[in-house]
Amino acid sequence: MIMKTMDERKKRLVAFIRQVWDEGDASAADTFVADTYTIHHDPGDPWEGRNLDRAEFKDRVLKSRAAFPDQRFDIQDLLADGATVVMTWLWTGTHQGDLPGFKATGQTIRMSGATAYMFDNEDRLTGHWQITDRLGVFQQLQRNRQEHSRS
Length: 151
Known about the structure:
The protein is of the alpha+beta class.
């Protein structure tokens, strides 16, 4: 068993966010994600409440990034307690791919949130509990759709 310090887990989480979510390297999940990854709480996420194997996790990354391939997380703070690291963040992405009910607009979308990531004893991510401003995203998409229909 490899037990990491809280600072090492914070660094590992930052590397995971950069490689997997910002750069879109789904294959990097092999390095960071445990055999099973549980989405404990993430209202509005199609995978909420599911236990994903690594292949399903990679598929989630690819599908989640499809509409916003240039997405970036601006990490605001990292708080660690035992096997959990909480990340507060600001997110931006250009709406380049269609979403149900929303054709791509090329507009920048912004969102904020907080995610508690859980680690196992081997320093792999086993899941998360997340809150995000999905209503704000919906409002931005709706506003952009209205502006596009007028032009």
